[in-house]
């Protein structure tokens, strides 16, 4: 909630942190998809998602936001699990139940 309410950084810095950085010297075949270490993607119905994954010592997590819908969900696992599969399942559920509809 502190991130979404910009409790410790300005609105402009927060917005910039969630914007893909198209570095001038980018040389990979895969286009840039990271902004200040946030992974930026789209749902199948083209809504922007911003999040970050993490793993360490057998623990796995995924923090995902759909900014224009005010949706945040977090997957936390303390044993090896398919975190991407959980994320995909949740996103599909949100779509099926009309949480990602355009108003």
Which properties best describe this structure?
103 residues, alpha+beta, five-stranded antiparallel sheet, 2 helices, globular
What does the secondary structure layout of this molecule look like, with pairings?
Layout: H1 11-17, E1 34-35, E2 38-42, E3 48-56, E4 59-66, E5 71-77, H2 83-96
Antiparallel strand pairs: 1-2, 2-3, 3-4, 4-5
Question: Would you write up a description of this structure?
Answer:
The chain is α+β, with helices and mostly antiparallel strands and 103 residues long. It has one domain. Helices cover 20% and strands 30% of the residues. It contains two helices and five strands, in the order αβββββα. The chain has a five-stranded antiparallel β-sheet, with helices on one face. The longest helix has 14 residues, at 83-96. The radius of gyration is 15 Å and the shape is globular. The two termini are 24 Å apart.
Summarize the structure.
With 103 residues, this protein is an alpha+beta fold. It contains two helices and five strands; from the N terminus they run αβββββα. It has one domain (11-96).
Spatial order of strands in the largest sheet: 1-2-3-4-5
Please state roughly what percent of the residues sit in beta strands, choosing from under 5%, 5-15%, 15-25%, 25-35%, 35-45% or over 45%.
25-35%
Mean pLDDT over all positions = 86
Biggest beta-sheet profile = 5 strands, antiparallel
Total count of domains: 1
The string of secondary-structure elements, in order, is HEEEEEH
What is the CA-based Rg, rounded? 15 Å
Fraction of residues in helices?
10-25%
Number of helices: 2
| N/C terminus separation | 24 Å
Overall body shape: globular
User: What would you call the structural class?
Assistant: alpha+beta
Outline the low-pLDDT stretches.
none
Beta strand count: 5
């Amino acid at each position: 909630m502190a991130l979404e309410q910009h409790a410790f950084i300005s609105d402009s810095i927060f917005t910039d942190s969630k914007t893909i950085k198209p570095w001038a010297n980018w040389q990979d075949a895969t286009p840039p998809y990271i902004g200040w270490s946030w992974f930026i993607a789209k749902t199948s119905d083209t809504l922007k998602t911003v999040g970050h994954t993490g793993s360490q010592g057998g623990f796995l997590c995924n923090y995902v936001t759909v900014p224009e819908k005010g949706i945040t969900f977090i997957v936390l696992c303390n044993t090896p699990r398919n975190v991407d599969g959980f994320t995909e399942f949740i996103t599909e559920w949100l779509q099926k139940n009309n949480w990602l509809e355009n108003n």
